[in-house]
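To the team - adenosine-5'-diphosphate complex, inputs and output below.
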Amino acid sequence: MKGSAYEAMAAIGQTIISNKQFLTDLDAAIGDGDHGINMARGFEAVATKLLSLGPDKDIGVILKTVGMTLISSVGGASGPLYGTAFLRAASPSQGKFELDTETATLMLAAAITGIKDRGKASRGEKTMLDVLEPAYDAFVAGAAEQKSLIECLEFACEAARQGVEFTKTIVATKGRASYLGERSLGHQDPGATSSYLMLQTLLEFSRR
Ligand code: ADP
Ligand code: MG
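Output:
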């Protein structure tokens, strides 16, 4: 992949910040209407932190900084969950300056395990995991067929897009949306949507 982790994270932050209202509206329908606000606040803090860190750091250092910043700056459930995901993804990418499919597989797996450790949710409960797990499976399937990183990301993004659609068809059993019970049906999950947006931005970034 061309470009640094620094630039990739800046692009992801930009996407989240420009989708602040959209993510907040999705959360207003089934939660407390703050997902976009939480995520934008987190990624604004990340942008400031990254500026002081400088662009020449390896992927692990960048992701560790992102994770710690999200945990310390976001109040909602999503801050600690995404923060843990980025922190965990920082381990297999330590010392690496370029992303390859093997490392990306380990990073995605570590991120998902982190989210599950922290949030105790599993696939099918209408959370970000309904995007991240199918995305991971599709990515791994591509890697097993020796596809390029971009192709694997394309598979992952398509699975992620379907994952967002799938969240409309299920009832939330974790997080605030679970308070709504059946009334969460028909609505796409905000956290699943932000996960999709991040993956899609990574794909667009890697295509540049
Ligand atoms: P809060 O729910 O505290 O208001 P946000 O609105 O920022 O936090 O984030 C809500 C999103 O967090 C949900 O849409 C869902 O995807 C995700 N989420 C909530 N609880 C969990 C959990 N236990 N595991 C995984 N994801 C979760
Ligand atoms: Mg919320």
